[in-house]
Amino acid sequence: MLQFFETQPFYNHFLEFFLITEWGTDACNLTLRSDALAQVLRERQHFDVIIMEQFNSDCMTAVAHQLKAPFIGLSR
Questions:
Q1: Whole-model pTM above 0.70?
Q2: What confidence tens digit (pLDDT) does each residue in 19-46 have?
Q3: How many angstroms separate the CA atoms of 27 and 61, rounded?
Q4: 53: which strand partners?
């Protein structure tokens, strides 16, 4: 896997980081503005733990904080 990065021109790394940042921002905006999340926050149910993907953004940790629930961040 690392060989892939070694053979790429140096500017590709900046492009990849830019795209990953943009995708993370878009995902956060879509999720944080969703009706489903608004309903979860309105109902204030109790959660023992929240499991979330953590790849390029940690915006969902704010949701766990609002729900006063511990979270486990998974990354592949």
A1: no
A2: 888 988 998 999 899 999 999 999 988 9
A3: 14
A4: 74
